[in-house]
Amino acid sequence: KQEVTQIPAALSVPEGENLVLNCSFTDSAIYNLQWFRQDPGKGLTSLLLIQSSQREQTSGRLNASLDKSSGRSTLYIAASQPGDSATYLCAVDTGFQKLVFGTGTRLLVSP
Amino acid sequence: ETGVTQSPTHLIKTRGQQVTLRCSSQSGHNTVSWYQQALGQGPQFIFQYYREEENGRGNFPPRFSGLQFPNYSSELNVNALELDDSALYLCASSFLNDRSSGNTIYFGEGSWLTVV
């Protein structure tokens, strides 16, 4: 059974810091991995999708890496801003777009 | 704006009642999945519909059921509501170009269900 773990559970940083969010999964047989953002009480917004054959994806200040063999992914956020405050969820696609999610990292960026 | 809309946004039901949640997917998307997200947890996969047929189910009892319609809308029905059913229910819409992988998945804002 696929299990996804995210560390840390919560993170508080001052504005401008670079930060790394970690995601690990137990079964390397995945089709892709996605990182999502969730604002309080809201739905999920897809940030980055990494196919299983890829090593990383970049979008603006966000960079996500994938090491399928070790079951790890990281989301790097450069020059954090207060607007980045949200919960970040990683999810692995186990096939047919059935996603297994981690419990998320709650990020607070202070001005 | 993901193009996926859900209704209602909030509702309160009594234990034992039945509820229907609705989702309108993006035009052209052939796949819809439903997830349950309890407070402080990640979403849990309930089931998926692909071209109007159920295409997989998570660890949820049969009182959770669904439908997908040709007009890109879908429903999640829950019978005999229990207190633990209180959660955010998320609809996810996508296009599967084969049955094993797909493109970006778009989520709706969710329906908050409270069972008292």
Outline the secondary-structure elements.
The complex is a heterodimer of chains A (111) and B (116).
Chain A: E1 4-7, E2 10-14, E3 19-25, E4 32-38, E5 44-51, E6 56-59, E7 62-67, E8 72-77, E9 86-93, E10 99-101, E11 105-110
Parallel strand pairs in A: 2-11
Antiparallel strand pairs in A: 1-3, 3-8, 4-5, 4-9, 6-7, 7-8, 9-10, 9-11
Chain B: E1 5-7, E2 10-13, E3 19-24, E4 31-37, E5 44-50, E6 53-57, E7 64-68, E8 73-78, E9 87-94, E10 106-107, E11 111-115
Parallel strand pairs in B: 2-11
Antiparallel strand pairs in B: 1-3, 3-8, 4-5, 4-9, 5-6, 7-8, 9-10, 9-11
What does this structure look like?
The complex is a heterodimer of chains A (111) and B (116). Helix content of chain A is 0%, strand content 58%. Chain A is built from no helices and eleven strands. Chain A has strands at residues 4-7, 10-14, 19-25, 32-38, 44-51, 56-59, 62-67, 72-77, 86-93, 99-101, 105-110. Chain A is an all-beta fold. In chain A, the strands form two sheets. In chain A, strands 2, 4, 5, 9, 10 and 11 form a six-stranded mixed sheet that branches. Chain A has a five-stranded antiparallel sheet with strand order 1-3-8-7-6, with no helix packed on it. The mean pLDDT of chain A is 95. Chain A starts with a strand and ends with a strand. The radius of gyration of chain A is 13 Å and the shape is globular. The mean pLDDT of chain B is 92. In chain B, the strands form two sheets. In chain B, strands 2, 4, 5, 6, 9, 10 and 11 form a seven-stranded mixed sheet that branches. A four-stranded antiparallel sheet of chain B has the order 1-3-8-7, with no helix packed on it. Chain B has 116 residues and is mostly beta strands. The A-B interface holds A 4, 31-32, 34, 36, 41-46, 49, 89, 91, 93, 95-104 and B 2, 4, 6, 31, 33, 35, 40-45, 48, 50, 55-56, 58, 88, 90, 92, 94, 96, 99-110, 112.
